[in-house]
Fold:
Amino acid sequence: MLIEDFWVMLTAGLVASSCGFIGVYLILRRMAMVGDAISHSVLLGIVLAFLATRILGGVWMFAGAAVAGLFATFLIQLLHRGGAREDAAIGVTFTGLFALGVVLLSLYAGDVHLDTEHVLFGELAYVPYDVLIWQSVELGPRAVWTVGAAFGLTLLVTGLLFKEFKVCAFDPAFALSLGIPVTLLHYVQMTLVSVTTVAAFESVGAVLAVAMLIVPGATAYLLTDRFGWMLGLSVVTGVVSAWTGYAVAVWLDVSISGAMATAAGAVFGLAFLFAPRHGVLPTALRRRRLTRGGTGAVA
Amino acid sequence: MSSNGLVNCIEVEGVTVSFDGRTVLQDIHWSVPCGSAAGIIGPNGGGKSTLLRTLIGTVRPDKGTVRIMGRTGRPSPGLLSYVPQNEEIAWHFPVSVFDVVLQGRLGKKKWWERISPEDREAAMAAIRRVRLEEHAFRPIGDLSGGQRQRALLARAVAQDAQIILLDEPATGLDATAQHDLLEILDEMRDEGKTIVATTHDLDCLTDHFDSVLCLRGRVVCQGVPRETLTPETLSLVFGRHVAVFTEQGEVTMIEHT
Structure:
């Protein structure tokens, strides 16, 4: 294995872990599509930050993207409260913000290397060559540091507010009665989703970021009835999907992000069919055994 | 009367609540003696849930005062615990009954404090209290409606508050499950807890509740259930009739068409 392969796999593993982890909360709060909305809305933030600073990349662009993602969740909430259905609110918000980003991009920044294709699909293969240098020491790919930092922040904040996040997701009305600031914590969590998505998106593109936010969590949900396990399994299935996808991409010489997202879908498919308690086949088998047992008892 | 000499654990005086200019509750006067069970009835949209939220302090009245255990302002989780409506809860969440009951212990904790062995002890005791010990470590989503409701009640027990507010605890339960739940509520009342529950089931009121409050935006009737719930008052609260209130406070009936 080449060092480049190592960096790509490490980056992809970190993306899968960070997205898979926070994605569990999105799945359980029935907010999967909010992850989609955030990942698309950040384009507007990236473009605005660039237009304001004329600098590609760096802290400002990251901050702009994260703020745009957070703004999207805020807008969704606002429209929903105002009477729009939640799915419609999400659809309107992210297509609107994304489209505005596209328009601004083509209008003012057409000459810069900030093309929509890159934003959507990313290019993991370039990750090893964008190296972070600090006082002329090479510290490895920038993506590893940004995604790693986002994951670290998510783990830290979630670790500190674990009980609160859990009760807010399970029973917000009760959490409010305990005096837990439910709305504030919602936005704290959405900030984490936003930061995670932006970090992932920079290196792997929006499509893989969304896939990793939603699919591993959905897979883990089928595999366990325990919350802690679900967090762990989501990370594990995410990483397995990412690495399997990479192997396939190298083997068939296809898009890395595409192969990884496909692998995540395939892993979900396996869980959907074979998960011990919730899978389609085990459930059908149990039912059959039950009917047989029933007729046996009658006979 | 409670140990600290208080007569009424809940006192509501002239409370008016409105949302976006629409008055949901108007001039509510109501009190609940300590150690008694009070039922709240009324049509949907009559303000039952809003009144409960006003007691918790998550809804602020435009006018009037709420006193919980003699004190105004938002009551602490140690004074009052809340069991929300069934449908507001994410039952698909992968947690065990024990985990859910443990949430009752969060009220007295700061966010940096961890769950202690005493908390686990208290949660287990609360689970035994509602007779769910066999199901303590099953996923909450696998339980029946009645068992879920008892799990929520156990969470309130673990919270160890003087007053327990329940929003439609009996809705959707079959007769047996309802009976089991009401029996546990009776026991808790007899141990000195103050119970307040909204309900659609009028049958249970006379046997299990000491007082009833009929809400339809305002107080339509209140008192001892057996005396208060007459065909006349019920038709005022729900019936085929629409109650119209004149400014002098007189009640006129108009046939609903």
